[in-house]
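FORM 12-B: Structure-to-Sequence Request
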């Protein structure tokens, strides 16, 4: 990638220096300079396939990158790093750059100061965990004891209910017999 950046800088310097020198020295042939630059560019493109692909992508985006206006202003607004990044934005390179940005964005979250104390906190959490386990076991025992008491209560309530029904039936029978005896003693 450094090689690509260096070549782009060399090419830009050549274009800008030739443009400045032609303004200073009008005796040079402008068409000859353009032809020389085109030959140098063709040679650089034939030597480096990645540069050729990058230039094709640049050509597609040149209206956005260079727009209309002053080349020097455009050069200042969009530096070599940004141009290189635009050239490299292909499927895999784009994904790699995106992954690298994601990783660098997460770096601050990964190296939180709280994480340095994690080992120290682990021992403390083990103690709390053991207390929780003991309390949960004790809770299950208490729940079993309360359930047993409630079951006994329901069983005794059932027995008492049946005893009450039998007692009520016995009292009703006795009362009926007393009423019958009183009625027979009044008649007779």
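FORM 12-B RESPONSE
SEQUENCE OUT:
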């Amino acid at each position: 990638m450094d090689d690509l950046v260096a070549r782009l800088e060399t090419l830009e310097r050549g274009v800008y220096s030739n443009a400045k020198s032609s303004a200073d020295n009008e005796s040079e042939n402008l068409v000859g300079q353009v032809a020389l630059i085109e030959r140098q560019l063709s040679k650089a493109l034939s030597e480096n396939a990645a540069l050729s692909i990058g230039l094709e992508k640049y050509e597609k985006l040149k209206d956005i990158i260079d727009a209309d206006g002053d080349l020097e202003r455009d050069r200042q607004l969009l530096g070599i790093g940004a141009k290189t990044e635009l050239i490299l934005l292909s499927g895999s390179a784009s994904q790699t750059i995106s992954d690298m940005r994601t990783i660098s964005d997460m770096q601050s979250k990964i190296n939180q100061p709280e994480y340095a104390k994690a080992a120290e906190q682990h021992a403390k959490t083990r103690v709390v965990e053991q207390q929780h386990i003991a309390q949960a076991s004790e809770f299950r025992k208490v729940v079993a004891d309360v359930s047993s008491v409630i079951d006994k209560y329901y069983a005794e309530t059932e027995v008492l209910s049946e005893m009450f029904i039998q007692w009520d039936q016995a009292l009703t029978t006795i009362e009926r017999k007393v009423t019958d005896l009183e009625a027979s003693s009044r008649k007779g």
